[in-house]
């Protein structure tokens, strides 16, 4: 039996401005018909380059050497016409970020029909009616009502768009589907649905699947085998269960540890980090009086039609000194609005935010003083830093606003506290000269420079690589332990809460449906929504593992 | 002490590097470079006129040539109705025309930038009011408004500058507002808010440096327009008829019958001078815009 896909000594080099970047070095991979293979790795590890090389979709600057055998035929040697026939009819791709891969001005039915029209099966061209029937059939396969064929992409949710992408990939009954981070931008529950759908379709129609992700647990849930890539090379390739149970290569271990299993005592208060955490201070008082408290907070917006949308609908939340609270919920649950309201960036309709027992002033010097105490860390550090300001200017921004004396010492101290050492090395760098993790540290240093008593972090690690993620979480935990810095961490990731938080608040449609200690909420969920969130975790929870073995 | 440079030095070094990069990108555009060199030469000539020649040749009573004599060896571009050298008048005219062009452009860009940033930054009713105000000036025929203004105010160069400056700003305001809106939607503005930064901090530290390059490019384009507007107003007779400007030369040519007598040398030199100066400003402005406006980058 010929393998469906075979890569032999694949090398890809990008020529970028003088220096060649060796993105893929000597990769060998084999996928049998109907098999499933996961490729894991961080951004820049070359995993997407491998995937795109299969259909020769790489940019011109890329030089490919080695063999790419698709059903025994070498893709690199194919003539243009043959390659076009192979694209989509034999192998198709589910692209990353369904938001951008769909044409916003065309109906989705049309877009699904496009490959069907371009690649008539068995040489006969389908009639318009035939195309319609096929589109309806595909929509049914991905669990969308066929009537949605007339919808435009913006009328669909993220999960629905990703289903449309899968329907497009299935359109010409290919033998191989390459899914490039198919669930990265999706919520946990939607992610579980999409993964289920993908595995079911692949199994039913005996399609080979190559799935690319930075999240090992996602790959383990859908693929038989996982290959871990690091710096352009495959460092480990084994059956999924085996790899998850005992990752051998150092980098696989880092990837596995970055997404902890909820309930696993090993990862409780132990985010993946290379420097050891300070021990818990022995005299830590059990949750003292609240530092920041929201009482019956309500925020609503008007949408385009003038309808009121209640983003935050009556929330009571407290964060005490020396405590990390995780605010968990899916996108659109109102958690970011809640955070902005707590910081006084958004006016509430009603309700009170109080700091240290006193209501937060609405404006003027009082609000400015409050903002010195409570600091914000944003999701995407790349856009949270002004691209033309150096690290020094970015960190000094807060101290300048508040007129702190001895700016340089303050900045150096803040950078060191955020573990950018030695601080002098970073002062004159611009944001684009830093890695993602370093940028997030600069944002955190900018907050620390004001010596706040609390951080509000909105998805602080969502846009960071797996290995950096653990380091940033460890930093937050370290700051709490050494400085007693309280934090409200907003996240969609329950593993993060398990890693560092003391308490969890679960937000659903503008309300807090469940609040309690991490152990209470995550191990013994009471509300239906919390239960469904936990059930949707691709890695499952630790207790489930115990039960099943 | 041999430690690292101070942050101030670092910042200046970075600014110098940025400037050098901008210059390289600008100089890569041949047309813009040619425009800049010619413009520099023109400005130099205008500034040095008092050293090269004296302005007695502009005085009607001291005119030496025969009235309306065509170009010859003595008067390269002929003479006007009073026997003055057209070449001398055109060269001297560049002084006032350029002065009016630069000052009026500066005035209009300052007004436009302030209103544009305010309209985008404050939002709410401030923005609504300012936008309606801008729209009002945008739909008003600016030439008629300028004529009305210069008719009401006392005659003089200052009035012309004011009249042009007060009518040319709405397009700048629109441009600056759009750019401010895109900058203000960036998360680093949110971060600055959360750090406790007020309006002054956000506008001064983040917005103004962000819109400045675009404003600079816009200014050079506005200068060209202002030169035309100045010539138009002088030609229509609402300018300062005592000073020699390109518009005044044209007006004289019309009023004194030079045109009807076929004295083309009275009309073409100032006309061509206007076209050339506007063209230079447009070339430089377009060049700057290509460097600074992110939307024009390929």
CATH topology of chain B: MetI-like fold
CATH class of chain B: Mainly Alpha
Radius of gyration of chain B: 23 Å
The DSSP helix count of chain A reads 22
How many distinct domains of chain A? 3
Strand/helix succession of chain B: HHHHHHHHHHH
CATH top level of the largest domain in chain A is: Alpha Beta
List unreliable stretches of 5+ residues of chain B: none
Widest sheet, order of strands of chain A: 6-7-8-3-9-10
Termini of chain B, distance in Å?
46 Å
Q: Which percent range fits the helix content of chain B?
A: over 70%
**C-alpha-based Rg of chain A, rounded:** 25 Å
Write the layout of secondary structure elements.
The complex is a heterodimer of chains A (549) and B (298).
Chain A: E1 5-16, E2 19-31, E3 36-40, H1 47-54, E4 62-70, E5 73-74, H2 80-89, E6 91-94, H3 98-101, H4 108-118, H5 128-141, H6 158-170, E7 176-180, H7 188-205, E8 208-213, H8 216-222, E9 225-230, E10 233-239, H9 240-245, H10 250-258, E11 290-302, E12 308-320, E13 324-328, H11 335-342, E14 350-355, E15 358-359, H12 364-373, E16 374-377, H13 381-384, H14 391-401, H15 407-417, H16 423-427, H17 436-448, E17 454-458, H18 466-483, E18 486-491, H19 494-500, E19 503-508, E20 511-517, H20 518-523, H21 528-535, H22 542-548
Parallel strand pairs in A: 3-8, 3-9, 6-7, 7-8, 13-18, 13-19, 16-17, 17-18
Antiparallel strand pairs in A: 1-2, 1-4, 4-5, 9-10, 11-12, 11-14, 14-15, 19-20
Helix pairs in contact in A: 4-5, 4-6, 5-6, 6-7, 10-18, 14-15, 14-17, 15-17, 17-18
Chain B: H1 7-27, H2 30-52, H3 86-122, H4 124-139, H5 142-152, H6 157-167, H7 170-184, H8 187-194, H9 199-235, H10 246-255, H11 268-292
